[in-house]
Amino acid sequence: MIRETDFSRLAHTWEQLAEQMKAKGDTTTPVKLLQLADKTKRAELNIAFCGHFSAGKSTMINTLLGVNLLPSNPIPTSANVVKIRGGEKAARVYTMNSGVITFDPDTEMEKLKQFAVDGDTVESVEVSYPGTFLDDHSSLLDTPGIDSTDAAHKIATESALHLADVVIYMMDYNHVQAEENFNFTKTLKDRGKPVYLVVNMIDKHIDFELDFDSYKESVEDAFATWNIKPDGIFYTSLAEPDHPENQYEEFKNKLSELIRDREELVGHSVRSAAEHLIDEHVQVLKAASEGLRMEWESKMDSLETEGVDSRDAAAVRNALQQAEAEAAALASLPEEARKKMEKEMSVLLDNARLTYFSTNEAARSYLESRKPGFKLGFLFAGKKTEEERARRAEALLADLREKVAGNLDFHFKELMGKQPQEYHIRDEEYHASVHAMTVGITPEFLASHVKDGAQSQEYVLNYCNDIANGIKLEYRRAGLGFIDQVIARLQEQVKAQLEDQQARLAVLRELASVHEKLAELASGEQESREQLQTIMQKGEQVS
Predict the structure, then answer these.
(1) How many other CB atoms sit within 10 Å of the CB of residue 440?
(2) Residue 60 sits in which domain range?
């Protein structure tokens, strides 16, 4: 059993929800929540009657009440919701512009009926009448008649339905399987409303065409096909109260039973209604931002890039990340290429062996000829000495040139020649300059590395290292020049590729920005939902 204080707390929670929604600029849903709060405070059970104009709703309600409060002619009586409750006699019309107008339900009902059909100025009509099966805390709602599928969806979101704890859906015997019946009842069941079906006017049934049990089975099967499980189905006839299949009394007893279970039904219903009003509020927020959403979606459709679905946020994000990574790799390619080429050249030069035993011997002999006091013979000694010095220098030069040609020059030119190919650069002039490149190993080169000092085996080895390093230094200088040429060409190539890539990046970034804005909208709507759900959960925890 739910205590009165629990209903009061829940009502306060609905008021908090309404304030939160107002702060978001929603002017419609808070009104419904405040209506729900008022109903919750009174723990009032509302049983809503819905159905077609011709289904006999008004007649059924009048019969159940035992007094003709509603017109029973086929004119649509419920352009507005008419609420009937127990209590002292009173009839009130809630108008949009004139406030509340009161009538005597015994003498002025015709006037009230005129207000009941005036949907332009009247918001709702409320009648209280003693002596019925209703009490101060229970009421019947006569809702607008349904005449189309669109109307069914409209009625399902009308203010009356969120106040309904139980829905009685009435159908004419001959129109049970109309599509709007299925649409409407499914909408109600999806909203968690208890729904009881009343198939009225069964006196139209002709038994010899189809036995009544088979007819009932066809009705149940039709709703089951739509995955609709009503809480009960009643078959009634008001024209023939003694009809053998008439379940009017069972139906009336069910209504009395629902009234007895009022507090439990209301407790469940108001919570469910609040949850659906939170959903409605989120839809209001979505509608408010629909213009922006459509603008961004239109922009999204106008931005196209090959291989990417512009409406797929994840695909756009992945494509942007990939394009940015590719652009970054392109931008760093020249520097990375330089490091790679210089490293390969260094490895080649470091591993190239230019001096062997024969080189050391030729160097020792050459250095000996460079010592002060070196002299050959007595006759024509000066000329012979110079000739010997020249011969020994040429011997060292020949040895070095042979080692350089076999161990360095060939491999160096092969390396320099293939480097542009790795970056898809074709330059015949470059290749010609690589193969035409020479490093001059001259007598002057040999002489420039001779140092003064006593000649020893260690000195000879150091001299050989010096001339080998000197030769490698010249190749390194030439190699750096070739690398500069390759890098210059590569930079031109990268610049052109980056320009193409930037165009794609600009589109992807703009697309990603649009998706972020759309995500922000959705995130804001979800955040609003979660804030409201948190308020609701806190309110329920104390109940």
Answers:
(1) 8
(2) 49-279
